[in-house]
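Exercise 7.
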Amino acid sequence: MSEGIALPPVARGTLLDEPARLARLDEALPQIHAVLAGETDAVALQATVACLLWETFVQANWCGFYRCVGESTLAVGPYQGTMGCLRIDFDRGVCGACARTREVQLVPDVLAFPGHIACDDRTRSELVVPVVCRGELRAVLDLDSPHLSGYSRREADAVLALVRETFDAGSIVW
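Solution. The predicted structure, written as tokens, is:
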């Protein structure tokens, strides 16, 4: 299934209401799982997840991974959207908080988040999910939106489940 996923077209930047976003995500997830089935290369998985979530979350202005490249440093990985920050320390920003705590960060208003890093000044909300494999933090998945409250708790839970199913396997080649 290399042609991507089939979803109804929606203009990039549109903030659908939560039920419509969840329906779109529910339609996309089986297709995403089918595309990822059998792949074990971490970079291929990251690039594909970023691409397919970008297609799914039309409210996103950035969707991608920051990889762990040191004891307390993230570096930009595969993504879709405008240019991301090249490096992020664990003690800075929403991505750093996720990497440091290994907990999902659901931020409805990034301007209210202490230490927020503005890689794109248009971003108003953010969802960041830890990518853990065999107990080791490998990356974070970052979803930004130019809308306040661009992501819901239910979307966060679904993305976390996708990340766990995709990356927390013994067969992944990092």
